[in-house]
Amino acid sequence: MITALPIRGEPVVSPRVSPSWALDIAARFGMEMPESQRSGNPRGIPLVWLRDNFLNLSSFANEETRKRHLFAYLLWLLGNLFPNSHGDVVVPGLIYIAENMVDEPLPEQPKYSFGSAMLSHTYRGLCDATQKTSFAQKAPLLCVAYEFLQLWSWEYLPVGRPRIVQPIYPYDFGEGASATMATRWTKARKRWSPDIAKNCYPMYHQQFEILDEAEVTWNPWTQDQLKMVFDARHFTPGMLTDSAFWLTRCNLLFLWCVEPYNPERVMRQFGLYQEIPPPFPRRIDEETHK
């Protein structure tokens, strides 16, 4: 509902990364990547390098050049959707996914389940960030799709979110543009608390400590909210077409991440009765999780 990323499709999992992936990338783009400032082999493809070299595309470019730019854009997009602790780089495991999307004919339906991949990546990032040490024995670092996490928080929690002032009704998306429930935040005029930038962390922490369940928006996507955003327009494809899978109990996969999906713990998000305490979550063994 927030991103409209597809749930149906193959998991975003790649085969073993080739040890010569950096040379393969250089051959595909016709230029070498910059040397890493860190010791050892490069950790991934620098996002700034992709942006600086493939941002502009001439309208007279040939098919091969267009294909290189599309490949670079997909790598850049995947790197922003799935950030990592190595810095502003695209992890090599995502090269295979981008190559398949460029080299294969455009399918009628999305090939990959990017929705479940984003959830798996988010769960792993939150898990690592809340531990004293991560699996890699490094200091905790929050690596998630930050825009997605922020928009999810604004939908459900009153802490730290802006107030929508004079919401546009219906929203003006522009010709040919699509929208999701996140659009009501990105398109609307927003007002922030005047003291939100000063000492915000202690303030947020205190507000979370005293947060009452009655203040949580358990089901933010009511008929009134849907009407506010879409009015008489059709929903963006992907928002509701895969709703039959929302309550599936399964393991979510993304590259090396295996995370359990436990919808029975958040039934109120689906407008259903929530057992208190919630059922004991399904778990996977520690080695598989690592």
TrEMBL record:
Q: What are the residue boundaries of the Aminotransferase-like plant mobile domain, all occurrences included?
A: 2-283
From the Swiss-Prot or TrEMBL record, give the protein name.
Aminotransferase-like plant mobile domain-containing protein
In terms of superkingdom, the source organism counts as Eukaryota
Read off the InterPro entries from this record.
Answer: AminoTfrase-like_pln_mobile, MAIN-like
Q: From which lineage does this chain's organism come?
A: Eukaryota, Viridiplantae, Streptophyta, Embryophyta, Tracheophyta
Provide the GO biological process annotations. Answer: meristem maintenance
Q: Which organism is it from?
A: Triticum turgidum subsp. durum
